[in-house]
Amino acid sequence: MVHTSPVHSLCDDSSIFCDNIDLGFYDMDYQSSKPALQPMKFESLDDESMSYECLQPMNNDQILPQKKSLPSTEMQSNLLSWITKHPKNWTSSEVLDWVYYVAGKLEVDFCRFRGEAFQNMTGAKLCQLSSVDFERLVPEYGMKLFDLFHELLRGANFSKPDFFNEAPMLSGLPMQQMETNETKYEPKFDGTMLSSFEQQMRTYTIGDREYDFDPNMFPEVQDEGYNTTTGSGKVTRRPPGRPPKKPRQSVSSEDGSDGEYSPTQNRGRRPGQSAKGNHLWEFIRDILKNSMYCPRLIKWEDRKDGVFRFVQSEAVAAMWGRKKNNPGMTYEKLSRAMRFSRSAGYFAEVPKDGKYPKKLCFKFGPKAFGWMED
DNA sequence: TGGCAATTTCCTGTTT
DNA sequence: GAAACAGGAAATTGCC
Asked: Compositionally biased, Basic residues: which spans (predicted)?
């Protein structure tokens, strides 16, 4: 079957990746006057026939999503929910989604990009930021982000996507008028189809280096009983084992409130992180099949044996985090999950006969399938 | 509603 | 000494 994709300039026809779970597109469209490029064709693994309109050529003055159609009415990806709202109603997650969306569009170097500086910032707060604030948060790209954000505030129009039969008609509504409607409008995404272009664009520009994460960019995390440093900077050690369960509070920053982030309330799978069709081994398999990521981020050591190696481990972890709506994902966590998957049979021990590197190497196990085929 | 799968998070200790 | 590996423990969500 055939898909079309927006990544027209990123890879060639013969080696394009397009898995059946990773092709989610925008639910809403902004209006643009620029002509679209010819769509590219993608071979997919599934049987459903889908087609997408291609993104228009980008320039720095027109960083707005273009019209797409979605194959499913179940699209629930909050990755793109910002598209449906006035920015002042964005949650902190949606702010980050937008920031990374723009970063991807601009093809910025992720090693220098500090998008995480917008972590825990709601849309309302974002609207209050000055250009100086933007520059302070993201020194290199702050001004551009500021310009684009205010361009978005000024002129974007919405129109209703074809597949939203049940949604209120919003075509042509100026964004400023959206806010009264947006609470009624609940676009449906398919959680299994998130990322796609969004993810691909973000990861495409990761480049040849690892993520350059600067913890000093972010506010101190509240972590009762887990702090490894005290206010004086003195390192303390938390007691061994897991602390007792704390009563769960209502979701904090995710819903746009100003609740403080606490890792102790943020563990385990998150809402919408359905494992169905979204397993770690499948994700790994699929990026290994994608020439955009393989061999740049992950590569085969021995395809016949199913042995592969992480080249940009943190970048792959970030991709996995994006896919699972978990910006806190790291390679350490991802590798822990892979070790669990290994015990479950999705991965296997890498032979320690010196044939393969000792680090960052994994192997598909007996329960994994589909990695051998192109 | 309970059990289970599949993580996620945090940790300590070991190996490279 | 740093990075990666290994695995225990406790937690979560989704599915059956």
From this structure: 235-248
Structure tokens at A372: 């051998």
Nucleic acid strand C within 7 Å of A59 CB: no
Q: Which of residues 115-134 of A touch strand B (CB under 7 A)?
A: none
Q: What is the pLDDT of residues A304-348, one digit of tens each?
A: 999 999 988 888 888 888 888 788 888 989 999 999 898 888 999
Name the closest residue (CA) to the C1' of nucleotide B8. Answer: A268
Edge-to-edge, what's the strand order for the sheet holding A298-302?
A: A298-302, A307-310, A361-364, A347-348
Distance A248 CA to C11 C1' (A): 11
- Asked if A352 CB < 7 A from strand C, the reply is no
* Separation in Å: B16 C1' and A288 CA: 26
Chain A window 92-131, residues with Cβ within 7 A of nucleic strand C: none
Please give residues of chain A from 314 to 343 whose alpha-adjacent beta carbon (CB) lies under 7 Å from any atom of strand C.
331-332, 335-336, 339
Decide the pairing of beta strands A157-158 and A40-43: unpaired
Distance (Å, whole) CA A151 – CA A165: 29
Using alpha carbons, select from A49, A82, A31 the residue that is nearest to residue A189: A82
| Rama region for A188: left / alpha / beta (φ>0; ψ in -120 to 50; rest) | beta
Query: Domains in chain A, please, with CATH?
Result: 2-204 (1.10.150.50), 280-364 (1.10.10.10)
Q: Is the pLDDT of residue A357 over 80?
A: yes
Contact indicator for A213, A116 with CB cutoff of 8 Å: yes
- Tens digit of each residue's pLDDT (9 = 90 or more) over A195-226: 333 333 333 333 232 333 322 222 222 222 22
- pLDDT value at residue A362: 93
Residues 308-327 of A with CB under 7 A from strand B: 320, 324, 326
Round to a whole number and report the distance in Å from the CA of A119 to the C1' of C12: 22
Q: Check: CB of residue A77 under 8 Å from CB of residue A190.
A: yes
Query: If pLDDT is split at 50, 70 and 90, which confidence band does A284 have?
Result: very high
